[in-house]
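Researcher: Next entry in the queue.
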Amino acid sequence: MEINKDMTISSVLTAVPSSAEVFLSYGMHCLGCPGAKSETVEFAAIKHGANLDEMLAKLNALSK
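Model: Structure for this entry, 64 residues:
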């Protein structure tokens, strides 16, 4: 499975539970809040000032 920028945070967490570590490392601590169900990976990266390509690479490394 390839994780992409349009996936929601919760869908990534469901598919790859260990992805929580990546999100937390970028200061994304509200992984269980309602926003995680609608917020995309791209929006979260922008909101938290994270490098999207770097974050996707880390998430995809875990999904293999």
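Model: The chain has one domain: 9-62.
Researcher: Noted, moving on.
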